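Supplementary Methods, section 5.1.

A reviewer requested that the exact input to the structure prediction be made available. We therefore reproduce it here, unchanged from the version used in the analyses.
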Amino acid sequence: MKRPDLLLLIAIWEFITAFGAFIGISIIAVFAFPDAINHTWGSATPGVIFGFSIAILVLLCYIGIAIAGGIGILQGKEWGRILSIAHAALNLFSFPIGTVIGILSIIYLTRPEVIDYIKANSGEQQT
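The structure derived from this sequence is encoded token-by-token as follows.
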């Protein structure tokens, strides 16, 4: 069965957003952490460092979901479709472009022809 055309676009979108999150981590590391280490924020420094660490951890998880979902979709795996739906749900918070793409991705990834392609490619029995 031929891969639906828009799955490639969804995978590309996931890789682009993963790269954007990586840029966010880089910005935090280059600009924010040096100020926090030099005690620019005074007594709030431990809280600031903790906050930046949490932000980096969240972005790393986002990157993992995006890259794994994109690879899974390109391979036609069910877990890739599920991770891509999770990635699309996270994109709903990126107003306005991410919201629109997230909604369209969720709608597309739940269409019967996409599910049939994934099932056929994963070797599962179709009902």
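The CA atoms of residues 21 and 59 lie 6 Å apart. These observations are discussed further in the main text.
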